[in-house]
Design goal:
Blueprint: E1 5-9, H1 21-28, E2 35-39, H2 45-52, E3 57-61, H3 78-83, E4 88-91, H4 94-100, H5 104-116, E5 120-125, H6 129-133, H7 137-148, E6 158-162, H8 176-194, E7 202-206, H9 211-218, E8 225-228, H10 235-247
The chain binds 1,3-dihydroxyacetonephosphate.
Length: 248
């Protein structure tokens, strides 16, 4: 049985006072049947971990370097993220693929480094609007999944997030059939590669998840949670999404 996951990606937003929302989440969800994760910007990770003390809320980073250490100004190693007590790291977000030219091979190397450091890698994949309109979405997903997920991954060390680029921050989401189709494809591709272990790998949907569409999305087969951007910044928005997941 896969434990559902409500993950928040703060991107380059937030502040130390904004982390107070963790206190509100702790109060609202003391015994949540699903996992709750927040990924604030790296400078806030230590504060975030202090705020989650004594609660089941997990903290993760938004990126890591593929190398263990070295002359990589501005980057951080997976082991450093693990050392402070964070447990997840997002890799291959489309904003990094697009903004920094990260390739599938680089994303796989980052995921491998994360797993080697004891972190769970959240590998993001998703098609552009042009690819969706050209009916290439499924081929793109297959290729990104094959290229970005490291060998030897397991339900403990890997989460995959399907985030169609055109749905991120736009208020637009795919149809429920489209989400279901992609998630079924991801599950079957992972089964072909990892056998029964694939059944324990959590698959998240991301892209304009809001309190008013979460219930519908979480009812779909093979949607094990969400990677939420804007609506994870405030407890008032994230909490109803967590509740919808807990009910699903
Ligand atoms: P939004 O929920 O703001 O669309 O962002 C989704 C996302 O990119 C999460 O990683």
């Amino acid at each position: 049985m896969r434990r559902k996951l409500a993950a928040g990606n703060w991107k380059m937003n937030g502040s130390i006072p904004a982390l107070d929302m963790i206190g509100a989440l702790k109060l609202k969800h003391p015994e949540c049947p699903c996992d709750v994760l927040l990924c604030p910007p790296a400078p806030l990770l230590t504060h975030a971990l202090q705020n989650t003390a004594g609660s089941p809320i997990f903290i993760g980073a938004q990126d890591c370097h593929a190398e263990e250490k070295g002359a990589f100004t501005g980057d951080h190693a997976a082991a450093m993220i693990a050392e402070i007590g964070a447990t997840y790291v997002i890799v291959g977000h489309s904003e990094r693929r697009e903004g920094y030219g990260e390739t599938d091979a680089q994303v796989a190397a980052k995921a491998r480094a994360a797993q080697a450091a004891g972190l769970t890698a959240i590998v993001c994949i998703g098609e552009s609007l042009q690819q969706r309109e050209a009916e290439e979405a499924l081929d793109v997903i297959k290729a990104q999944l094959a290229g970005s997920v490291p060998d030897g991954s397991s339900g403990e060390t890997l989460v995959v997030a399907y985030e169609p680029i055109w749905a991120i921050g736009t208020g637009k989401i795919p149809t429920m059939d489209q989400i279901a189709e992609v998630h079924a494809l991801m599950r079957s591709e992972l089964q072909a590669r990892f056998g029964d272990e694939a059944d324990s790998i959590r698959l998240l949907y991301g892209g304009s998840v809001k309190p008013d569409n979460a219930t519908e999305i979480f009812a779909l087969n093979d949607v094990d949670g969400a990677l939420v951007g804007g609506a994870s910044l405030r407890a008032e928005d994230f909490s109803p999404i967590i509740e919808a997941l807990a009910r699903s």
